[in-house]
Amino acid sequence: MGNVKVLLRNPRREVELQGPLSVIALLNRFSLQREAVLVVRNGTLVPGDATLADQDEVEIRPVISGGSDRGAPRVEGVCSP
Amino acid sequence: MKCQVCRGPAVIDVRRHNANFCAEHFLRLCRDQVERAIAAFDMIHPGERALVAVSGGKDSLAVWDLLVGLGYEADGLYLGLGIGEYSDESGRYARHFAAERNLHLREVDLREEYGYDVPTAARATKRAPCSACGLSKRHLFDACAREGNYDVVVTGHNLDDEAAVLFGNVLRWQMEYIGRQWPVLPGGDGFPRKAKPLVRLSERETAAYCILSGIDYQVEECPMADGNRHLGYKAALNSIEESSPGSKHDFYFRFLDRAAGLFREQAGAGLEGLGACIRCGAPTPTEVCGFCRLVDRASAAEPVELIPRPRRRG
After folding, report:
1. Full DSSP string of B248-286
2. Separation between Cα atoms, residue B71 and residue A7, nearest integer Å
3. Is there a contact between B204 and A12 if contact means CB atoms under 8 Å apart?
4. pLDDT of B22-75, one tens digit each?
5. Rounded CA gap, A70 and B181, in Å?
6. Looking at beta carbons, which residues of chain A come within 8 Å of B204?
7. DSSP class of B245
8. What confidence tens digit (pLDDT) does each residue in B99-129 have?
């Protein structure tokens, strides 16, 4: 019988954990903020109270995009942020 | 968990609304929030043409999908930034999305058309990569909108983006930036109108919208954004959100309601006396605009070779 297979990103890697465990417990295990990720099980979104079982394939998908100078003025040459 | 609308099985919990939703009712929530933002801030009028700034990421593809779903005429504009494999992959997502829906995607490749890419521009100008990238994007989105006679440029900035920018600007009390922060910037003086219809949706919600709508997008983070200070602001705000759901929304929308008007006077700083760039005609306070100066320096520089990041498994 297999464990819960978990795909993490940035960097991309896979780990196996023993089930059953809740989505919240999974996120706590990796010290992840709930607002910063979604959990996808076997291709479907799952909410925080879902229980993950052995043989589930789970992706923890980060949702935070980074690069930005968003606050910069709309006119080039005025100033740099 | 059950959907608060139909009591069917929920697929997502949205703590700031203290509610859970099934796929159908979550997608409806997203459409309603975008419709509400467009109406509340007078972003796009019936019959207008929108140009969506498309990166291949979740936010830009979500906003394009939502606008088309709401009946707006919207084309996409993808900029090839030349950030190695990341840009190659992002372009594929953008093209695939447009082709699947029979939408029109315009493309501009910085290297092919202007002789530089973002990594080279960052090194040549000693700017942060996000700054060189942002300058290029702002200039080219404006220019393409003018040339294509679009009424409005639409970007995928979401609630987290806007709250993080506000947080950063308040930390340093950058009055003129705070004064300009609004979900829509009016057109004029050679600038097209700019609108951010996703301001009522969080980053997690736009990602969920894509997954539930079957939109494939670039999940990997831009390799040049490592260490970007906005990532730190977002993490700080999410820590607060964790213990106090709704904080990001309140921080941003209460600013719009109660404080933004107090900074309007400073918003115009640096915008007086704009002329046309003698090279490209773009509005600028100097003889040659910042974009043309960037092109001069970056296109003359030796191209930067990006080393592909290994994909780790284990």
Report:
1. HHHHHHHIIIIIGGGGHHHHTTT-TT-EE-TTT--EESS
2. 37
3. no
4. 999 999 999 999 999 999 999 999 999 999 999 999 999 999 999 999 999 999
5. 10
6. 35-38, 63
7. T
8. 999 999 999 999 999 999 999 999 998 888 8
Cβ distance of B242 and A33 shorter than 8 Å: yes
pLDDT digits (tens, 9 = 90+) for B122-163: 999 888 888 899 999 999 999 999 999 999 999 999 999 999
| Residue B307, pLDDT above cutoff 70 | no
User: What's the burial of B282, exposed, middle or buried (CB within 10 Å: 0-12/13-18/19+)?
Assistant: buried
Side by side, which strands form the sheet with B184-185? B105-109, B73-80, B49-54, B152-154, B193-195, B184-185
pTM for this one? 0.92
Query: Is residue A81 within 8 angstroms of chain B, CB to CB?
Result: yes
Is 70 exceeded by the pLDDT of residue B174?
yes
Hey, is the C-beta of A70 within 8 angstroms of any chain B C-beta? yes
ipTM: 0.85
Which residues from chain B sit within 8 angstroms of residue A10, using beta carbons? 220-221
**H/E element, A61:** strand A57-62
pLDDT at A81: 24
In DSSP terms, B79 is beta-bridged to: B108
Residue of A12, A46, A74 lying closest to B185 (CB–CB): A74
- Supply A17's token pair: 């954990």
Q: Which residue of A has its CA nearest to B26?
A: A45
Q: Please give the structure tokens belonging to residue A39.
A: 């959990």
B241 contacts in chain A (CB < 8 Å) = 33, 35
Report the DSSP beta bridge partners of residue A7: A14, A59
Query: Is B130 within 8 Å of A34 when comparing Cβ atoms?
Result: no
Question: Residue B273: left if φ>0, alpha if ψ -120 to 50, beta else—which one?
Answer: left
- Quick one: CA dihedral B252, B170, B269, A65, positive or negative? negative
Residue type, B107: E
Q: What angle do CA B198, B237, B54 make, to 5 degrees?
A: 30
- The model's pLDDT over B154-166, given as tens digits with 9 standing for 90+, comes to 999 999 999 999 9
